[in-house]
Structures are given as structure tokens and as C-alpha cells.
Amino acid sequence: MAVWTVTTTTPTEQSAEEIAETVVGEQLAAAAWISGPVKSVWWHLGEPGSGQEWRVELRTLAGIVDRLMVRIRVLHPWDNPELVGIPVGACSPEYAK
Question: CA torsion 7→8→10→13, rounded to 10°?
Fold first, then answer.
């Protein structure tokens, strides 16, 4: 069973919690961790910017990672949020279940 980590950032702690609680409740993710606020620095729409964001890290399975990412896009307050999925290189079989 292949495990994935999916991360996104949100503008508020409340939006991070709403995304995490919804996708875990819908069993699209097994768990979610929220950290923040974090300081972000970016280049967007041709100019630099910076600000505070809340980071959401989720664990899911390879077979539903695409559904999870689509659901996060629907729930997210931004039109084009950062949304990154990375396969976990190794984990215990018990954790993967």
C-alpha cells in the first residue's frame, strides 16, 4: 500500500481546520497536522510577496490521492492554492493499513 503526504497552506487557522476535519471525516485522508502560523515568502503574478499562512499536512493512500486533492481545491478559500503530493518512500506496513 503506497502512502502519500499532501500539503497545502491556508490564510487562516479556521480554514486549515475546516479542510483537515472535512477530508479526514470523509476518509480521504487518514490524518492531518496543522502548523502555524508560518512565515511565507513567494513570487506570484509577477511580483514578490510575503505573509503568514497555516500549513496543513495530510496522509492518504495512492489510490485516493487525486480525489483528496480535488476535494481540497473545492474547500480551499484561494482560487489557486499550493497543493503538493509526495509519495512516502517507506513506512511500516501497520501504519499503511
Answer: -10
What DSSP letter does each residue of 2-54 carry, written as one string?
-EEEEEEEESSHHHHHHHHHHHHHTTS-SEEEEEEEEEEEEEETTEEEEEEEE
Q: Residue 71: which residues within 8 A CB-CB, separation 6 or more?
A: 22, 23, 26, 28
The 10s digit of each residue's pLDDT in 4-62 is 999 999 999 999 999 999 999 999 999 999 999 999 999 988 999 999 999 999 999 99
Task: Determine which helix (DSSP H) or strand (DSSP E) holds 56, and give its type and residue range.
Answer: strand 47-61
What are the residue boundaries of the structural domains of the chain, listed by start? 3-96
| Domain formed by 3-96, architecture | 2-Layer Sandwich (3.30)
The reply to whether the predicted model has a pTM over 0.85 is yes
Residue 28: its pLDDT value, please? 98
